[in-house]
Every structure is written in C-alpha cells, then in structure tokens.
Amino acid sequence: MIRKVNKSDLPQMLKIWNANYKVLTSSQKKHSIKSLENWYETRTKINHEYFGMLDGKLEYFGTSKGKTLKAFAILKYTKKGLWIKMLATDKHEKGKGYGKALVRFAIKESKDRPLFCECMVNNWESINFFFKFGFKIIRYNKKLEEFVMQYQK
What we know:
The chain is α+β, with helices and mostly antiparallel strands. It has helices at residues 10-24, 33-42, 98-110, 124-132, and strands at 2-4, 48-54, 69-78, 81-89, 115-120, 135-141, 146-151.
C-alpha cells in the first residue's frame, strides 16, 4: 500500500535513509530522528510530500496501522513539474517491486506535468533503474555530482 508517511513512520524511514545515505544525497549525511522530524515538520513549506510503501500491497492510500515501511519517496511539487527528490528501499526488501510501485505512483501523480529525478553520478544502480522507466539524462550538475533525469512519456 502507498500512502503519505506519518510521523509514526519516521523511525522506519530513518532506518532506510541511514542504510542508503551515501547514494541519496551529495552531502552523504546520516539523519538523526530529530533532524528527520525537522524535515518532516517543514516539508510543506518547501512543497515536499513523503510517500511510503508499506508491506508490499500494491494498492494506493488507505489505513495501515501496524504496517512496516518498506520504501519511501520524497516528491517535490513545482510549477514546472514534479520531482522525485529521494527514493529508497529497505536493503532487505530490494527486488520486490516496492521502488517500482513508488515510481509508477509518481508517474500517475505527475499527471500532465513533467517528471524529474536526480541521481548521484556514481549510483549506476539507480540510474539504470530510472532508465528502465523511460527516464533520460537531461543535465549534469557538476557541483553536486548528480544527473538530472526526465521521464519521457
């Protein structure tokens, strides 16, 4: 099931983030529960929303008390399009379709707007993952050492 991440999901999100932090962001910093809570509390001010994949049921939205967060995506809504700012799966759950379901969700969520993502240049696993969905590299950010990719419908 995919739904918005709740504050109660943050400890599970923190575990996934800190297991993947080296490929999620150019700063390569781990979060603490306090820093992640701060991000969560200020997310709407910067047009972000957090979505989580719980227990692998591929249905969208609903209640999920007691479910385990398997993967998450942070989406940023802008006037020019929708951005997948972060996408990470629990290392023990890779290959089970959770990341794919979140990308499909982002594609539907983007509607008629362009959909973008960013990948660190050394993260070939993620780059190839997005290539499979039809994303193309459109720009290289030398300062952050990341590619900007755009979904091609």
